[in-house]
Amino acid sequence: xxxxxxxxxxxxxxxxxxxxxxxxxxxxxxxxxxxxxxxxxxxxxxxxxxxxxxxxxxxxxxxxxxxxxxxxxxxxxxxxxxxxxxxxxxxxxxxxxxxxxxxxxxxxxxxxxxxxxxxxxxxxxxxxxxxxxxxxxxxxxxxxxxxxxxxxxxxxxxxxxxxxxxxxxxxxxxxxxxxxxxxxxxxxxxxxxxxxxxxxxxxxxxxxxxxxxxxxxxxxxxxxxxxxxxxxxxxxxxxxxxxxxxxxxxxxxxxxxxxxxxxxxxxxxxxxxxxxxxxxxxxxxxxxxxxxxxxxxxxxxxxxxxxxxxxxxxxxxxxxxxxxxxxxxxxxxxxxxxxxxxxxxxxxxxxxxxxxxxxxxxxxxxxxxxxxxxxxxxxxxxxxxxxxxxxxxxxxxxxxxxxxxxxxxxxxxxxxxxxxxxxxxxxxxxxxxxxxxxxxxxxxxxxxxxxxxxxxxxxxxxxxxxxxxxxxxxxxxxxxxxxxxxxxxxxxxxxxxxxxxxxxxxxxxxxxxxxxxxxxxxxxxxxxxxxxxxxxxxxxxxxx
Length: 544
Fold this sequence. Notes:
This protein has 15 helices and 22 strands. By secondary structure, it is α/β, with parallel strands linked by helices. The two termini are 38 Å apart.
């Protein structure tokens, strides 16, 4: 645990992270009059979009959804160019917001938290950074995001490779020239799929090492014309209100129609329309795709049929067809001619289920069938998600108990917002909330507003600390577990359940009841006069 000889600096609020959650938190609490300091490992704002600069990086939520709704001035002044924005435009948006609200003056960039320790006597969090600075504040907000700790593949020999290694999650800021290069890519989740469809058209040769194929659907992205943008801006208030009532936290329609309520021919028509329409239309086509296995199987068969129609090589097509887990149980990816990329003569699929990787060598990758020499190796192998960022440094609560000890069997919290035994510690988009299953900006705004309400309540009542009761935490975890048990999402080995990290406790630790229901739980906790929480009074100062 890092100690510092520097004198402590007392502030009103510490916010960790400069992604969309942290940016809004800093703005919100500054507006409330707090002296706020933000801490960010990157060199500027943007969170995951600051780091993820790989070719093809793009959000799979529509631009209208993946943007702030708290400021009408910002949403009127900013204009999106595409239905699904690419990384450069999303980062430009984050910078625009930071400029518009003058947020950077409150952040300390290129700085990491080394430890966060609760002082019970003084009722403060003492945060030490990697630079030896010590900050003290009554409240600490972890806006570290569900996807912020990259994970390398668990393969022998990474350090031996003499070529260049690139990581999707921390891509260089300069442009990479792939022309004439032999490139290997490990990982075919969302990032890997986006990289394949770009690098496959640039590289001399691209070798894609696939273990578990992902379900991916056509994005059908397009530019937004001026007339539509004007309409959208006129109707932002109604759209934002609708997003709060939507299970996705976005504007995507949600169906109440069960799959088997339609005869086979009509079901086929609906699926065909969803495929042609693109985006996440499939998820809005039927109400029971993540609860009815037979319905899920039929949709999966339809998509596998489409893959077979697109990919010319029957062997590659078969290897690209996901099997053994439900469609949409892994994060559903969106692509732009991903499967068509495998029809290019320079793109080669390496099926690691039939020909496993043995090791990374000085020259490339050796599988059981032999070695492939490479100039560049790309890792698109995801994150230690949901809990990784919060466990990357020492977090010590009441009585010296660490968060690592508390979470040794898996993350526990109340509403994904607070943790029993860790007073005045809040998280936005934390484990046991909707996290990656809904629009992260909608969740962030909801969570920050909730934290603002409870801290206002505390100030008015003269309260020094708050934490959920163990009974409330247990009850919430039971809600999360019971909903997860009914969902097909738990049937896939993914970062959603923690199975991509060796030794990590597995289980679906996200609230799968939908963003709208999550908001209801958050509101109920507030309307119940915070009965699920324990408070301590502020010490009364007496005159000498």
